[in-house]
């Protein structure tokens, strides 16, 4: 999804790399809000460090996170609208469950961020 950066010696980025790995993992699990949070933490960990390859990789990853969040918000809106308009109780229940899964994917759970 996001290419690996080349090794740049001496730019002290271990915390940023760890947060980036967590962000990729969260994105793979379908949690783009959590992934974006990890990207922000990684960027903060870099500070003013001149690690351009890592910073570029983080910007790309964060853009992907924001795009996926937007898609999930649109899907959630559609699911909630469909559930409101549905006459069949069983189908409405399934649509509500789908909306709940989408809401969970959009939520940033602070206990998982730490």
Question: Would you write up a description of this structure?
Answer:
By secondary structure, the chain is mostly helical. It has one domain. It is built from five helices and no strands. Helix 1 runs antiparallel to helix 2 and helix 2 runs antiparallel to helix 3. The two termini are 24 Å apart.
The H/E string reads HHHHH
Shape: elongated
Largest sheet at a glance? Answer: none
Q: Could you give the distance between the termini?
A: 24 Å
The number of helical runs is 5
Mean model confidence by pLDDT: 79
Residue share in helix: over 70%
- Rg: 18 Å
Residue windows where pLDDT falls under 50 for at least 5 positions: 1-10, 110-114
- Our estimate of the beta-strand percent is under 5%
Number of strands: 0
User: Which structural class matches the secondary elements?
Assistant: mainly alpha
**Domain tally:** 1
Topology:
Blueprint: H1 14-28, H2 32-46, H3 52-85, H4 89-106, H5 110-113
Overview in brief:
The protein has one domain (14-113).
Defining key terms:
mainly alpha, TPR-like_helical_dom_sf, disordered C terminus, 114 residues
């Amino acid at each position: 999804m996001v290419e690996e950066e080349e090794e740049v010696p001496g730019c002290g980025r271990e915390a940023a790399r760890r947060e980036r790995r967590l962000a990729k993992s969260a994105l793979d699990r379908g949690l783009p809000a959590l992934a974006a949070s990890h990207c922000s933490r990684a960027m903060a960990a870099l500070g003013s460090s001149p690690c351009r390859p890592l910073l570029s990789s983080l910007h790309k990853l964060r853009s992907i996170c924001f795009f996926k969040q937007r898609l999930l918000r649109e899907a959630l809106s559609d699911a909630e609208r469909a559930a409101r308009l549905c006459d069949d109780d069983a189908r409405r229940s399934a649509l509500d469950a789908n909306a709940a899964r989408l809401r969970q994917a959009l939520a940033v759970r602070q206990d998982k961020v730490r």
